[in-house]
Amino acid sequence: MQVLGIETSCDETGVAIYGDHIGLAAHAVYSQTEIHAEYGGVVPELASRDHIRKTLPLIHQVLAEAQLEHHAIDGVAYTAGPGLIGALLVGAALGRSLAWAWQVPAIGVHHMEGHLLAPLLESPAPEFPFVALLVSGGHTQLIEVQAVGRYRLLGESVDDAAGEAFDKTAKILGLPYPGGPALAQLAEQGDPQRYRFPRPMTDRPGLDFSFSGLKTFALNTLHQRQAAGEDSPQGRADIARAFEDAVVDTLIIKCRRALQHSGLQRLVLAGGVSANRRLRERMSQAIAAMGGQVFYPRPALCTDNGAMIAYAGWYRLKAGQREPLAFRPRPRWSLEELAPLAEA
Amino acid sequence: MKILALETSGIFCSAALWRDGELFTQHEEAARQHGERLLPMLDRVLAQGELELTQLDAIAFGRGPGSFTGVRIAAAVAQGIAFGAGVPLVGISTLAALAQAGWRCHGHSRILAAIDARISEVYWGLYQVEGPGQVRTLQAEQVSAPEAIHSGAAPQGFDPPQAADFGVGNAWELYRDILSEHSGLDDARIDAQQVCTAAEIAELAVTALAAGEAVAPEHGLPVYVRDQVAHKRLTSHP
C-alpha cells in the first residue's frame, strides 16, 4: 500500500509518500516562517491562505520525485488535528476530496501520533513499548506507547510548551522570530557557569512540566544586567545558555523519571525541539547512564512534515481504518482518545 | 457540457451538476458543517445525473468573497476533485452568482449584490444580468463601508435608481437603512434572503468555460477581496 500524507496543522505545509517496499519515497516541506516573522508569531488566517496555495503544488512535487503515477497511490492521509482549525481544514478538504476522486480510502491522522511514530522511519527503529517525549512549539508531553494507538499520557506542560518558552525567551533576548533555533545558537557562546536558572517542578513528584517561569527568569536576569549597565552580547549569550541548560536538565530529569516509573528502557524524542543538539547529546548520555536507549528522527522529521502523516496513515489504513466522506478536523484532540489498531 | 459545481461561502452548503442544460442540485443550510456535508452532497448529484467524475468537463466553485474558511473549503475540495479526476477548474464570483440568482427570482436586471463582510463592512458588486450565464460587471467586487456603495455614474450613491435595479444579499438586512438610502431602493426591490447557490455557479461556469477561463487545479484559488487581515508588529527590543 502506498499512502500520500498531507500536513497543514500550523505554519508548515508538508506532503510525502510512504509505502510498502518503497518506504519514504518522497517528502517535501514548505515553511511559512518568513511570512509570520513580520508579525512576531503565527497569524492563523495567513497560515490558511498560504496552505491553499502550496498544498497541491507540493503534491505534484512529491509524485514527481517519487516517480509515481497517481494510480500508484492507494490511500490518502491528512492531519485531522490538533492544530489551527482553518489550517487543518485546507489539508483535510483537499486530502479527503482527492481520495474521493481517486476512489481510494482516506484517513484523518492525529498530528502528535505522527510525531511520535516518526522515529520508526529511522534505522534502527525503536521497538514497542517505549516512552515518548513530544516536545515542540505547541506541546510538551510524556507518553507511554504500548503500540500504535495505545497511548497513555504520563505528564505534560501546565503552561508554555518548551518550544514556546524557547521562542518567547529568544524574543526577550532580541532574537528574530522564530527564535528557538537562534537561541540555541547563541547559547553555544554562553558561559554555563555564569547563571543558574531553576529546574521547574523537578523537586516534587510527578511528570508535569512548567516552562513559563523560566522565560520570566530570563527577563528578570536581563533587566538586572541592564539596570547595572551591563547588557552585552556575551551577557545575553550567558542568559541563553542558562535558559537552555535549565530546559534540557528539566526534560532529562522528567524523562529519567518516566522510564523509572514505567519500567521501560526505550525513550523516543520527537517534535521540533527534539532537533536541539544539546538536548540530544545530553539526553543520550543521561539515558545511556541508566541503561536505556534514546531514539530520535533526523532533524527534518522532527519539525512538522508530511512524512510522519503518511507513515501514521499508512499504519492505520493497512489496519483497515477508513474515514467517511465527511471531514471534520479537531483543533483540540487528546492522543488518548485514539483507537488502537485492530489485531492482525 | 458537464460541470460539477460547489459553493460554501456562507451558511449554506450547495452542490450542483450541470449535464448539458439539465441541473441536479443539493442545497442545505449547514453553518460550520460544510466539511461534513459537501462531499456526500456532491456524490448524490453525480449519482442523480448518472455521471462519473472523469466524464466532467470542469469543476466549478464559488471562489468568494464570503467566509474566508468557507471559500477555502470550496477551493480545497474543488482542487482535490479536479486534480484527482484530471479535469480543469473554474472559479466563479459568489457575488456575480448571487446577482444572477436575484435576476432569476425577481426579473430585474441591474443587481446590487451585497453581503456581510463583518467589522462594519460589506462585500458588494453591481451587475447587469443579460440572461442565464450572462452576467456583466458594472462595479467590480469590493469591500467597503455600506455607506460607500455606489453605481459608478453617481459616486455618492445611486440616484436616480433605475427601474431595473434590485438589491440582494444579507447586507440588505444588516444595513437596510444605509443601503436603501444610498441606492434609493425600497423594500419592494430588496431580497435580503437571496443566497448564492451551486446551481448559479454552474450556469456561470458554462459561460466561463466556453470563454476559456478554466485553469489548472492548483490555480483555482479563493478570492477573498479583503486582503488586509493582519497588522505587522512594530519591532521593539527590551
Which structural traits does this protein have?
heterodimer, A: alpha/beta, 10 strands, globular, B: 238 residues, 27% strand
N- to C-terminal separation of chain B?
Answer: 64 Å
Mean pLDDT of chain B: 93
Helices of chain A, by number, come to 10
Poorly predicted segments of chain B? none
Following the backbone from N to C, one meets helices and strands of chain B in this order, namely EEEHEHEHEEEEHHEH
The largest beta-sheet of chain B arranges its strands as 3-2-1-4-5
Shape, principal axes of CA atoms of chain A: globular
Oligomer kind: heterodimer
Please characterize this protein's 3D structure.
Chain A has 344 residues and is an alpha/beta fold. Helices cover 42% and strands 19% of the residues of chain A. Chain A has ten helices and ten strands. Chain A has helices at 33-37, 44-65, 85-102, 111-117, 162-172, 180-188, 212-227, 233-262, 277-289, 307-318, and strands spanning 2-7, 12-19, 23-31, 75-81, 106-110, 130-135, 140-147, 150-156, 266-270, 293-295. In chain A, the strands form two sheets. In chain A, strands 3-2-1-4-5 form a five-stranded mixed β-sheet, with helices on both faces. A five-stranded mixed β-sheet of chain A has the order 8-7-6-9-10, sandwiched between helices. The two termini of chain A are 16 Å apart. The mean pLDDT of chain A is 96. The longest helix of chain B is centred in the N-terminal third of the chain and has 18 residues, at 68-85. The model of chain B has no long low-confidence stretch (mean pLDDT 93). In chain B, strand 4 (58-62), helix 2 and strand 5 (89-92) form a beta-alpha-beta unit. The radius of gyration of chain B is 18 Å and the shape is globular. In chain B, 30% of the residues lie in helices and 27% in strands. Chain B has a five-stranded mixed β-sheet with strand order 3-2-1-4-5, sandwiched between helices. A five-stranded mixed β-sheet of chain B has the order 8-7-6-9-10. Chain B is of the alpha/beta class and 238 residues long. Chain B is built from six helices and ten strands, in the order βββαβαβαββββααβα. At the A-B interface, helix 2, helix 3 and helix 7 of A face helix 1 and helix 2 of B.
